[in-house]
Design a protein that fits this description.
Blueprint (H helix, E strand, L loop, with lengths): L7 E8 L3 E5 L1 H4 L7 E4 L2 E9 L2 E5 L2 H6 L10 E6 L18 E10 L4 E6 L13 E4 L2 E9 L2 E6 L1 H6 L10 E5 L2 H16 L1
Antiparallel strand pairs: 1-2, 1-6, 2-5, 3-4, 3-6, 4-5, 7-8, 7-12, 8-11, 9-10, 9-12, 10-11
């Protein structure tokens, strides 16, 4: 479980079809075998730590649902260690289980912040609500508006500088994790409907 508060921008140092190695001095400072680290919103399990680089195995399911497999050496990535029972919940409850890949369709800069619009993949818009929480590349954000399959968020200067979202351009893919509560409510309602 994570909070969606990115701790640092890491850097991919090696990538293959089966594993990913990432440099991240903050997240590796206390990392151990079996720990979970969110990489652009994808929960990965640490299999080794050497200095400030951790390695994680990557499964076929992860490649299928995300763009982790397209990362290249030198690419920046958002990193966050798993939450503990004493962690402040500055964002929202994030599982690190990507629901799909969205695309940036528009960036509108303002004096001190920027509005970014995304297009969701089919089937996810029903879980996104105005003023609700959403996770984009592992970053906890608030939905400003949603219309059809497009929604926007506002990015403050800190988010623009401290995450990959300040570097991504129109057309770039991003990982989306919708609110897990919405998905559970939907399943419960479907189950209740089948009992009637």
């Amino acid at each position: 479980m994570f909070t969606g508060i990115v701790e640092e921008l890491g850097e991919v140092v090696k990538a293959s079809e089966a594993f990913l190695a990432v440099r991240g001095p903050v997240v590796t400072s206390d990392a151990a075998l079996g720990d979970s680290i969110s990489v652009n919103g994808v929960c990965l399990t640490v299999v080794s730590v050497e200095g400030d680089v951790f390695t994680a195995d990557v499964m076929e399911e992860t490649y299928r649902r995300s763009v982790i497999g397209k990362l290249q050496v030198g690419d920046p990535v958002n990193l966050e260690r798993a939450a503990t029972l004493t962690t402040r919940l500055g964002g929202h409850l994030v599982q690190g289980h990507v629901d799909g890949v969205a695309e940036i369709v528009k960036r509108t800069p303002a004096a001190e912040w920027e509005e970014v619009t995304f297009r969701l993949p089919p089937g996810l818009a029903k879980y996104v609500v105005e003023k609700g929480s959403i996770t984009i590349d592992g970053t906890s954000l608030t939905v400003a508006w949603i219309e059809g399959d497009e929604f926007s968020v506002g990015l403050i200067p800190t988010t623009l500088e401290a995450t990959t979202l300040g570097r991504k351009q129109v057309g770039d893919p991003v990982h989306i994790e919708t609110d897990v509560v919405a998905k559970h409510v939907e399943k419960l309602l479907q189950a209740a409907g089948s009992l009637s």
